[in-house]
Amino acid sequence: MKQKEFLLAIHLTKGIGLARESFIIKAISEGRAPVVYPWTLTELALIIRFDRSQKGFSTIAASYQQALQQVATFDGAYLSFFDSEYPQLLREIYQPPLILFYQGDLRALRLPLLAVVGTRTATSYGQEVIRSLLPEVVQHGVGIVSGLAKGIDVMAHQTTFSAGGVPIAVIGTGLDVFYPLKNRKLQRLVGEQGLLLSEYPPGSGPQRGHFPERNRIIAGLCQATLVVEAKKRSGSLITANLALQENRSVLAIPGSIFSIESAGTNELIAAGAQAITGLEGLLTEGLFDL
């Protein structure tokens, strides 16, 4: 078995999770892991720091055996952490994805990338900002990354398409699952003409915990994250905070003090995010390798 197939089996094994996958990445990177695949259960237990006598290991053991069999017939496209096409910026984040399933053209990952995120209940102001700023950014060769969620995300993808740019969507379900369902056509289009990414295997439905995990990938792929509109409690602010933790640039569109959809972005600016008031701010020298 090749390393890439083995890592897919690890990812498909129930009960391992992001933290233990990080142990595996570190062990292989440091040359401390067995180089013959697949690993025995004893070898796996040592690497993921899970005593075989602990409650729950029997579940991992059974799922691991099933996953090894499943990999033999898996025909989807995916990247492992150790593939040359895996983006370097994403390698640098805390708990990078061990496996990324994808549809589309991986060359999109070579572009300078801007994450564009925001509220699901976008106002006409947010729509105007997207339509005013993104086409010019796209024409400078910047790929646009978002989460294919309702509102700002969808507008970012649609505007990128309209401007002839490259959209990258990171979703919180399997690539064959459409959430929300009305995004089916757009999701397929991104997979055909841009790049569709997911950490979750085919058939995975939406779960609450998937979306914060998805957000770390959006932030991790990009040199900068732009928050267009966001309420005080918003998933977009999670993405912005993750970007800050990874020492990436966080940009925010200022809004009316009377708009609840701008409360989060205004607070980001007050906390030190760069206020974007025009195209110049998005194309700041050094922000992207243009």
TrEMBL record:
Residues 79-283 form the Smf/DprA SLOG domain. It holds the Pfam family DNA_processg_A. SUPFAM superfamilies: MCP/YpsA-like (SSF102405). Belongs to the DprA/Smf family. This is DNA-protecting protein DprA. It comes from Fructobacillus papyriferae.
